[in-house]
Design goal:
Largest sheet: 2 strands, antiparallel
Number of domains: 1
Strand order of the largest sheet: 1-4
Helix content: 55-70%
Order of helices and strands: HHHEHEEHEHHHHHHHH
Number of strands: 4
Shape: globular
Radius of gyration: 22 Å
Length: 312
């Protein structure tokens, strides 16, 4: 019998013990990054109406989520979704009063439980809440405009946070399609109105459009399934926004509806997504259902689902 010792294979190398290599639950990445944006924007420019109003909207969103989830679903919810909604409302809604933040938070969270199709909410919650507030309380509220300025170092905070989120969720194609479409439609509007092209593209450099582009139109639970359909919907959102903004700028006697035309035109991005998003989502769900893909329709937001709050 041979007594020659046998060489055992070396044990596999262990992965480096570094915090960057640690897995991160995607549900908690958006809340973390949008919190950083909130802190940076408010610290640099005092961009909020008041931190107390933001905390009020966060608390109302979380409270409403807990109550509705326990009553309707009989389970405790994940608070990340409501937290994102609350911060989104605190950043995007402007009002000297406190009650609009409470009402917007209740509408935002309530829409997820009340307005559903085949077991899913079809409106981006924050987008729905803000659009409803613009309609119902337009004399008491406005939306974020230039309060955070559009200087490059402010935008870098939002761009960096948005790029991290979109990179993790593999949805950068949605943002890119929307931005390129916006630039193209801005040129078309420049030809129609005669306004300088730089003036037409200026809004997309502001904080509201950055938040809208990165956090609202990419919300996984309320976007369609598939890369190409998502790009088509992003293009249609930009197209609808172009139509709404252009109509509002026309020198036309709108009569009794003139106030509403102007109101919707001023808040065109919100109402563009408010209109196009649900129609696209329901259309795809019906189409998949007719093709015998009811199960696929139920998971149309399928891919990695982050916390839905309207600002994913």
């Amino acid at each position: 019998m041979s007594t020659t010792p046998q060489t055992l294979p070396a044990p596999p190398a262990l992965p480096p013990s570094h915090w960057l290599a640690m897995p991160i639950d995607k549900r908690y990445l958006p809340p973390l990054l949008i919190t950083l944006i909130l802190i940076a924007g408010n610290a640099l420019f005092r961009g909020l109406e008041g931190i107390d109003k933001t905390l009020l909207s966060i608390g109302t969103c979380i409270g409403a989520e807990v109550v509705l989830s326990k009553v309707i679903r009989k389970q405790w919810p994940n608070a990340a979704s409501a937290y994102i909604s609350g911060i989104s409302i605190g950043m995007l809604l402007r009002s000297p009063y406190y009650w609009p933040y409470i009402l917007c938070a209740l509408i935002t969270i309530g829409s997820k439980y009340v307005i559903r199709y085949r077991g899913r909410h079809i409106w981006n919650p924050s987008n729905f809440g803000i659009a409803m507030m613009v309609i119902l309380a337009h004399n008491a509220v406005a939306t974020l405009s230039i309060q955070w300025d559009n200087k490059l170092y402010v935008m870098l905070v939002i761009w960096t946070a948005g790029a991290i989120i979109i990179g993790r969720l593999k949805r950068f194609h949605i943002c890119l399609t929307y931005v390129l479409s916006f630039l193209a439609f801005a040129f078309l509007r420049h030809l129609i109105t005669g306004d300088p092209y730089l003036a037409e593209i200026a809004p997309i450099t502001g904080p509201m459009y950055q938040l809208f582009t990165f956090f609202m139109i990419t919300d996984p639970p309320t976007t369609v399934k598939g890369k190409v359909p998502q790009m088509v919907v992003a293009f249609l959102v930009a197209a609808m926004e172009f139509v709404l903004r252009t109509i509002g700028g026309l020198d036309v006697a709108w009569g009794a509806v003139g106030q509403w035309v102007q109101l919707i035109s001023v808040h065109a991005p919100y109402f563009a997504l408010f209109t196009v998003g649900p129609i696209a989502l329901v259309t795809q769900m019906v189409w998949l259902g007719r093709r015998g893909g009811a199960g696929a329709a139920g998971g149309a937001a399928g891919a990695p689902v982050a916390a839905s709050g309207g600002a994913v």
